[in-house]
């Protein structure tokens, strides 16, 4: 296998020979049966793009492995954080850790050689790992949102989450993810190289309705339904906190006091803080997964606008979600920040987190009658 050579690529592109080359030319013979004829029309990518993509994947992989590894270590080793709800946060960190630790090395290696050199088996495994851990992370985020909804919106009438229920939900998450991961292996769609030939995913260029149906149903159950459930949960969470804050202000007015909180003057209102967290969660979700969804839909409904470079960047955005999650779900947790300060004091920025006023069950806030709440 020839090493990447930018000078050679430039010379080829400036000559007639370079104009006859395609992005498929470097693909090993044992992979050609997986390549859709659509990709034969595209010239090879500039080697600099392969270098940039390999570097970005490597950096994101390192950040994700370190960030999620730290979340796993702290949540596992800190007794105060071993609660049923935090098992979901821990499961999210494990899923993101596994996704980036399995996918990134393969992408970096293939980016160096400018094509998929690991063979059909590893192509299947690469795509399966992406589907399994990606779906696992998505549905874990859903159950985290529903748990916060249960605690904050339902309040005292909510049935508390137990360790047994948390484990059952985690098992359900992985069963859901496993079903969608195995389906292409048994014939409902298939796993193939992406457009630039350095990563693998589902076949969204096959116009067979069996393959199309997988993309459509997968989109419903792994994108639209989870997104709707997260938006639904956070909408009512923000609404419940805003209502509670309003009642507290009205009660303070009746008692002819400025506030029922001693620190309200120096803190942002609870509903504003929670609204920011909700907006961040939904926005990062949308930014991460929507480009890849658009790529898949463009493929099954008409692939005229897809290019090799577009497909791999959309895949990269989806993988980058594994970098956001430890920040949103781990570092935003006050008790996590306290444990982080004890174990890794040099990594903590800003003021020391407040005392133990955050609900273990929600990870963000818990609205109670005595108003002992803090927004992470």
TrEMBL record:
Presence of the UniProt keyword Mitochondrion in the record: no
Keywords: Chromophore, Disulfide bond, G-protein coupled receptor, Glycoprotein, Membrane, Photoreceptor protein, Receptor, Retinal protein, Sensory transduction, Transducer, Transmembrane, Transmembrane helix, Vision
Cellular component terms per the entry's GO annotation: membrane
Membrane topology summary: Multi-pass membrane protein
Domain of life, per lineage: Eukaryota
A GO term, aspect molecular function: photoreceptor activity
Domain G-protein coupled receptors family 1 profile: 67-329
Membrane-crossing residue ranges in chain numbering: 48-75, 87-113, 125-146, 166-188, 215-238, 277-298, 310-332
Cellular location(s): Membrane
Pfam families per record: 7tm_1 (PF00001)
Keyword Transmembrane helix: yes
One Gene Ontology term from the biological process aspect of the record: phototransduction
PANTHER family: OPSIN
Entry's family note: Belongs to the G-protein coupled receptor 1 family. Opsin subfamily.
The protein, known as: Long wavelength sensitive opsin
Origin species: Macrosiagon limbatum
């Amino acid at each position: 296998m020839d090493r990447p050579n930018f000078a050679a690529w430039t010379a080829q592109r400036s000559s007639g020979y370079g104009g006859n080359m395609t992005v498929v030319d470097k693909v090993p013979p044992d992979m050609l049966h997986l390549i859709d004829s659509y990709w034969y029309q595209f010239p090879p990518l500039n080697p600099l793009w392969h270098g940039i993509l390999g570097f970005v994947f490597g950096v994101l992989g390192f950040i994700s492995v370190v960030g999620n590894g730290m979340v796993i270590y702290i949540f596992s080793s800190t007794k105060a954080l071993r609660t049923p709800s935090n098992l979901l946060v821990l499961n999210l960190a494990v899923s993101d850790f596994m996704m980036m630790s399995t996918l990134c090395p393969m992408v970096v290696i293939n980016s160096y050689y400018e094509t998929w050199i690991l063979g059909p088996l590893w192509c299947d495994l690469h795509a399966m790992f992406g589907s399994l851990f990606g779906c696992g992370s998505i549905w874990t985020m859903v159950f985290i949102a529903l748990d916060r909804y249960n605690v904050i919106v339902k309040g005292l009438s909510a049935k508390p989450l137990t360790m047994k229920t948390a484990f059952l939900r985690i098992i359900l998450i992985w069963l859901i993810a496993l079903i969608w991961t195995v389906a292409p292996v048994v014939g409902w769609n298939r796993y193939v190289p992406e457009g630039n030939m350095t990563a693998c995913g589902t076949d969204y260029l096959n116009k067979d309705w069996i393959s199309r149906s997988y993309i459509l149903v997968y989109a419903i159950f792994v994108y639209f339904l989870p997104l709707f459930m997260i938006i639904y949960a956070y909408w009512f969470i923000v609404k419940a906190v805003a209502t509670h804050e309003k009642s507290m202000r009205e009660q303070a007015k009746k008692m002819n006091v400025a506030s029922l909180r001693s620190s309200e003057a120096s803190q942002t209102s609870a509903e504003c803080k929670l609204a920011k967290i909700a907006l961040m969660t939904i926005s990062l979700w949308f930014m991460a997964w929507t480009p890849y969804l658009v790529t898949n839909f463009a493929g099954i409904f008409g692939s005229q606008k897809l290019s090799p470079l577009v497909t791999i960047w959309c895949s990269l955005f989806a993988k980058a979600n594994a970098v956001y999650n430890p920040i949103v779900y781990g570092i935003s947790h006050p008790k996590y920040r306290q444990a982080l300060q004890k174990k890794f004091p040099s990594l903590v920025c800003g003021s020391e987190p407040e005392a133990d006023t955050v609900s273990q069950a929600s990870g963000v806030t818990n609205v109670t009658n005595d108003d002992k709440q803090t927004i992470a």
